[in-house]
Design a protein that fits this description.
The chain is an alpha+beta fold. Helix content is about 40%, strand content about 15%.
Length: about 140
């Protein structure tokens, strides 16, 4: 699912932004690229917190609707669509302790690093389980 984010670059090269559809979810970086990367992490952490509090995860809006409703709020920046796999939020998260061979863990970490759409190890393992297990 794609969530629109609005981001501003500062004269020093740093950047920060927010998700208009997700109140309280902000991101930043020392560079524009770092801010782009932080956007997905910020959204993931925010949604995990909402799940922990049994709160509803807001649905993404459409950029054009934001521009129509609040035209003066979006000047001098740019829009970014952040793709996030909502399956990782399909139930209350539970911390577990597992043992994996080091070689397998290195392969998982390498895959996660090379595929930015995968948020972290937990998201990778959950998605792998969803693909193998029925219903």
């Amino acid at each position: 699912m794609f969530y629109p984010a609005y981001i501003h670059s500062d004269p020093d090269g740093s950047a920060s932004g927010f998700f208009p559809d997700v109140p309280g979810c902000f991101f930043a970086g020392d560079t524009l690229d770092e801010a782009f990367q932080d956007a997905r992490s910020a959204l993931t952490v925010h949604f995990e917190a909402l799940c922990e509090m049994d709160e509803v995860i807001p649905r993404p809006g459409i950029v054009e609707h934001h521009l129509e409703k609040h035209p003066d709020d979006f000047h001098g920046g740019q829009w970014l669509l952040v793709d996030i796999n909502m399956n990782q939020f399909d139930g209350r998260a539970e911390r577990i302790n597992i043992t994996l061979p080091r070689r397998l863990l290195v392969k998982i970490d390498t895959f996660v690093r090379d595929h930015p759409h995968v948020a972290n190890r937990s998201a990778f393992l959950a998605e792998a389980a969803r693909r193998v297990l029925p219903g």
